Amino acid sequence: MPNFQYVITDAKGIRREARIRAANLDTAMQTLTKKGFKVVSLREMRGQVGEAALPPIAEQIQTMVEKIKTLIPLNTLVFFTRQLSTMFSAGLTIEKSISNLMVEEKNHRFRRVLARVANDLKKGMSLSDALALNPGVFDGLYVALVHAGEISGSLHVILEDLSNYLEAMADTRRKVLSALSYPTFVLVFMMAIVSGLLLFIVPQFAEIYAKFGARLPGPTRALVAVSQLLSRNFVPFMGIMIAALFVGWVVSLTERGGMVFDQIKLHFPVMGILTQNTLMNKFAKTFGIMLGSGVPVLESLTHVQRVVRNRVVVRALETSKMLIKDGFAISVALKKTDVFPPTLIQLIATGEETGEMDRLLDKAAYFYAKQVDAVVDRLTSLIEPMMIVAIGAVVVSIIITIYLPIFKLGMALQRGL
After folding, report:
1. Together in a domain, 216 and 320
2. Both 210 and 266 in a single domain?
3. Which domain holds residue 390?
């Protein structure tokens, strides 16, 4: 006899969640409603909830390849979700809504995905099952929320919440990328300038100095040696760099290597603060919308793990799930991990006391979104002048080192006169 995970509210409006054994879904529903409970969510448990916080390397690479093959912009997915919610609210069936959106869709790749979904719906599949067959476009969180909406009968509301959620995540991603794009561009630009000086300018000066047969100063000799080494081994050097980056990427997908990389991300100067605030924003926003949609706590935390994708936070959430299973409150379980900030834990504790967890988590997400804005503004104002000064210092240092023999020759001539 299968087990079913349920979320109900009793006559006093208190929210509860637990498991029930029944012959099928209808029997479980009847058992709960006969007791006077209002069923928020009810679904069959397949396997252990919460396993495989992050998928293995092969699955991660496969999902990444699938996403690259589809390449559906997040804005397109947000627009589709909002339109689907509007059509469904207006009385159209899901199958008709998907078919209409497929005809109007301009992105040919997404149109093919919608065609597959519409075809699966005609075969009698549920929307969540049809979406789950396209993991490169609709991730586990998306499918889980749609499934919760189907069970609770509030699919149009959940779709609207989901579109707002995706929009918020896209906005956060845009802010983080804007904070990282400028220093990354400047760093690449600086490497290009230094490489150009070492490959083309320094060798010309080295030839001139070699004709005079003069002994060069130590810094100039070192710069010429580096230039010669790079010139003679440029292709192997680039190959080694690319191979090192690839190996580093593969190592970051492993459990132990990923843990080290993620620890560095969280504690890296300045950028670590941005990473922490971004992760807490994702955690609060995702956890809030999952709970608000009637998804059980443990299953919600499992989906949160897949969204944050930072192994330090993922491991902390895995520990929290074990503590919650043992009877600890959510806020207490999160506090014991020493990963989540006190402000977030306090808001969650208040939500547990008042029964408004989803609303307070939304407030926490808003708070950390503002923190991300503040960090991005601060980084923009600080990094731009610092990177400009860094470029100038590197270029000037190389030029002074190149001209150092000429400066010394000038001083020697002055002493001779």
Report:
1. yes
2. yes
3. 168-417
Answer yes or no: is 87 within a domain.
Answer: yes
Under the banding of pLDDT at 50, 70 and 90, the label for residue 338 is very high
User: Same structural domain for residues 9 and 116?
Assistant: no
Question: Is residue 52 scored above 50 in pLDDT?
Answer: no
> Residue 48: its pLDDT value, please?
42
389-406 per-position pLDDT tens digit? 888 898 889 888 888 888
Same domain for 173 and 283? yes
Q: Which residues pair with 19 in a beta bridge?
A: 5
Q: What's the pLDDT score for residue 151?
A: 75
The fraction of the chain above a pLDDT of 90, given in percent, is 26
- Judged against a pLDDT cut of 90, whether residue 319 lies above it is answered with yes
Give the chain's end-to-end CA distance (angstroms, integer): 105
Confidence of residue 414 (pLDDT cuts 50, 70, 90): low
Please report whether residue 52 resides in a domain. Answer: no
Looking at residue 410, what is its pLDDT?
A: 60
Give the model confidence (pLDDT) of 193-234 as tens digits. Answer: 888 888 888 888 888 888 777 678 888 889 989 998 988 888
d(CA 350, CA 336): 17
User: Can you give the CATH number for the domain in which 350 is found?
Assistant: 1.20.81.30
Are 313 and 352 members of one domain?
A: yes
